[in-house]
Specification:
It contains eleven helices and 13 strands. The chain has helices spanning about 1-20, 100-115, 120-125, 140-145, 160-185, 210-220, 225-240, 245-250, 290-295, 390, 410-415; strands at about 60, 65-70, 85-90, 90-95, 375-385, 405, 430-435, 455, 475, 490-495, 510-515, 520, 525-530. The longest helix is centred in the N-terminal third of the chain and has 22 residues, at about 160-185.
């Protein structure tokens, strides 16, 4: 008995000493001494993960404090970004602006999935090529070729609205996460061939006559049958293919058919991957205005602990042309030098681009990001308010929060006896605003006019019953008092190929309605980090 007690005591000491050597670990609890990830006990899972891997196409940006706000002495500056110190958390940012070939990949996917069943969704994802048209300029070659010709593959996509850019971020998140699930053997590659026709139940032998009768009935129904089949196909695609990783994470009915989680499956039942497994990316999105400005200035301290104060542009120095011996006099961004000067003098002082240039043109800033000034302006996530810099929080500053919750599918929930969620037209989870006071776009904005409803009845057309239709509303174009800034006004930054040098200052800010687009606005994606603020590595997937 003494020998057994001695062995047990020695084992406990070894166990406790192991915890003391590294008391914060995912093998044993530092508070109870119990072993984690043990299928013989409680099967409590503890996953060892310090930080994220760098997502495809992105660069880790270490956060910190910096001075946001106007730089320089421009008399005509709009004074809509007062200087103030802010802190930004670490995040990821696309190395380049999203290109034409990137968007064509997205559009191609949408065409494969939706062209036959919901062409309106494909149309909604297509850039507006007519943004190149100008009444007194011959830009038809750009309209016809800029998006589609391979010579413009790596030029920034333009003619996309803020709303389209947000949809692209959601699509990109799902495609990256889908490939992660496939690579880990959790799900199979989608069977795109089955998109052409929804799966049919296998018929038993002897059902040929019944099948022939069904075919005859369908032929008689004509267009009505075609419409119903089209709808069935669309619903099949939406439920089984589109944005399926999001549904896979949030609905228990979407379980893997052939495979389990490769590392932490401690039960005999198949289970879905959870966000806390650490496999999937957090999600691509547009950067906040504070993140974008921080990334553009790249305020990195030297080994001596010094940073460059008062930078006017993303590159070192205070001039649009390079002062280095190697590139003396060369332009450092794609912008307009003056009236009628779109590209500089022919020869060594020419930037080579009348309109946009390749996304890797010119030198990157200290964070390794290209074209954070010039080429195209870039959408950011924020709702525009003139006084935002004086009102937002001191860290992770942002205006535009709308807090939502997944929308329950009441009928499906009742049938299943547990929560089931509704899907939108793209197969994504549908969301509702939690409550009216959860829309924070107007929070303390000091602009009462932005809350005014300017849509009102201009005419009262009679309907077929002879009564006036009181539901038709139109915006009065003559209302000069109607506010120009609304909750749909989104910030864009950076300056473009068509802008003067003032707009190349990362602190400059403008706005445009989120459903509008131009030939001068593109975007790049960002992503939040989880875990330690300095990303743990730059290894790609």
């Amino acid at each position: 008995m003494k020998k057994v007690i001695k062995i047990a005591t020695l084992s406990l000491l070894v166990l406790l000493s192991g915890c003391k050597q590294d008391d914060l670990n995912t093998q044993y609890s530092n508070t109870t001494g119990w072993k984690y990830n043990d299928k013989k006990t409680t099967k409590f899972e503890a996953i060892d993960m310090v930080g994220m891997e760098t997502p495809p196409g992105m660069i880790p940006i270490q956060g910190g404090t910096f001075m946001v706000g106007e730089r320089g002495e421009f008399v005509t500056a709009p004074r809509n970004n007062k200087q103030r110190n802010l802190t930004v958390s670490s995040f990821y940012m696309d190395k380049y602006e999203v290109t034409n070939i990137n968007w064509r990949e997205y559009l191609h996917w949408m065409e494969i999935v939706f062209q036959a069943t919901a062409p309106n969704l494909v149309k909604a994802a297509t850039p507006d090529f007519t943004v190149w048209r100008e009444e007194l300029a011959y830009n038809e070659p750009y309209l016809e070729n800029y998006f589609t010709h391979p010579a413009f593959n790596f030029y920034p996509v333009v003619g996309v609205t803020w709303e389209q850019a947000v949809d692209y971020c959601v699509w990109r998140t799902d495609r990256v996460n889908e490939m992660i699930l496939v690579s880990n053997g959790i799900i199979s590659l989608p069977d795109f061939a089955s998109i052409q026709q929804p799966k049919k139940e296998k018929k038993a032998a002897g059902d040929e006559e019944e099948e022939e009768e069904v075919v005859e009935e369908e032929e008689e129904e004509g267009e009505e049958t075609a419409a119903s089949v089209n709808k069935a196909t669309y619903e099949y695609i939406r439920d089984n293919f589109v944005f399926n990783t999001q549904k896979y994470l949030n609905n228990d009915e979407y379980l893997p058919e052939d495979g389990r989680h490769p590392k932490h499956d401690f039960s005999d039942n198949v289970r879905k991957v959870r966000p806390d497994d650490g496999l999937l990316v957090v999600g691509y999105r547009l950067p906040t205005e504070a993140e974008w400005e921080f990334a553009a200035y790249a305020p990195i301290a030297s080994e001596e602990g010094l940073t460059i104060e008062g930078k006017i542009y993303p590159w070192d120095g205070y001039y649009p042309r390079s002062l280095s011996k190697k590139q003396l006099g060369q332009l450092q961004a794609n912008f307009v030098r003056g009236r009628g000067d779109m590209m500089g003098v022919s020869g060594v002082l020419n930037d080579g681009y009348v309109i946009t240039g390749p996304v890797n043109a010119f030198q990157p800033n200290d964070f390794g990001l290209y074209n954070m000034a010039g080429n195209v302006n870039e959408w950011v996530m924020d709702v525009y308010r003139e006084t935002s810099s004086a009102e937002v929080a001191e860290y992770n500053s942002f205006r535009g929060n709308v807090y939502t919750t997944p929308k329950l599918d009441v009928e499906a929930t009742q049938e299943a006896g547990e929560d089931r969620y509704s899907l939108d037209s793209l197969g994504r989870l549908a969301f509702d605003i939690a409550s009216p006071d959860m829309d924070k776009r107007d929070f303390r904005d000091g602009d009462w006019a932005s809350t005014i409803k300017t849509d009102y009845l201009m005419n009262f057309p009679a309907d077929t019953t002879g009564f006036f239709n009181l539901t038709q509303e139109k915006l009065d174009p003559t209302d000069v008092l109607a506010p120009q800034i609304t909750n749909r006004s989104r910030v864009y930054k950076g300056g473009s190929w068509k802008d003067r040098v003032y707009w190349l200052n990362p602190s400059s800010r403008r706005y445009l309605d989120q459903d509008k687009c131009t030939s001068t606005i593109g975007f790049r994606c960002a992503m939040s980090t989880v875990g330690q603020q300095l990303p743990g590595g730059t290894k790609d997937f």
